[in-house]
Structure formats: structure tokens, C-alpha cells
Amino acid sequence: MTVLNKLRGFSLVPALFLLVVLAALGAVAVRLSAVEHQTFVLALQSSRAYAAAQAGIEWSSYQALVNGSCGNSSVALTEGGLSGFTVDTTCSSTAHSEGATTTNVFVLDAFAYSGVYGTPDYVSRRVRATVTDAS
Question: Residue 71's domain spans which residues?
């Protein structure tokens, strides 16, 4: 019986070690899952920011080519998947004459953003385009 008394509690050490290792693996798995989720969300937000910037370019193009107005503006998007984004647009134009024809060239810039700069959920995209009213 003396040998049995010495071995009593021997399986406690490997059991505790196994428990600690499994807990650590579980914590790593939870952390990796959270990082993967955040990466997916930021990729989606990045795509939405690009779409918002493209919408700003289209809006500026319409203003310049149809309404003849080229200026700076800020638009807060409130509909659909672009809700929550703000688009700051700038427009500059130059006139070019060739013979009797004058052509206007518009340089458009759209900067779309959501969130507060410096926070983990901040995302932004900038798109530039050049359009002309030449026929």
C-alpha cells in the first residue's frame, strides 16, 4: 500500500496540464475568429467606401456636364448600403479652344469616408476622374 499512497495524485499534474493547454487553444481559436470577422467587416466597408466615392464622381459629373456647375460640395449618403458615408467632392475646370470649338475639361475628385479618423471602424476611399463636354 505504500506504493499506492505515493502514486496517489500523480494523474492530477497531467490533467491540469491538459486543461491549461486546451484552454489556451480555445482562447487562440476565439481570438482568430474575432480577427477574421473584423477583417471581413473592414473589407466590406472598404468596398462600400469605394462605391460611395464612385457615386460622388457620378454626381459631380452630372453637375458639371448637365447643370454646368463645377464646385465643391459635401453629401451625406442616407439610402441603402451607402448609408452612413459622407462624400466630399471637388471639381475644377479648364476651357480649351480649338478653332471655333471650345471644350471644357473637368477634373473631379471624390473622397468618401465613414467613421471617425483614428478609430478601428474608420474607412475611406478617394477616386479621381476627368470628364469633358466634347461631342
Answer: 11-132
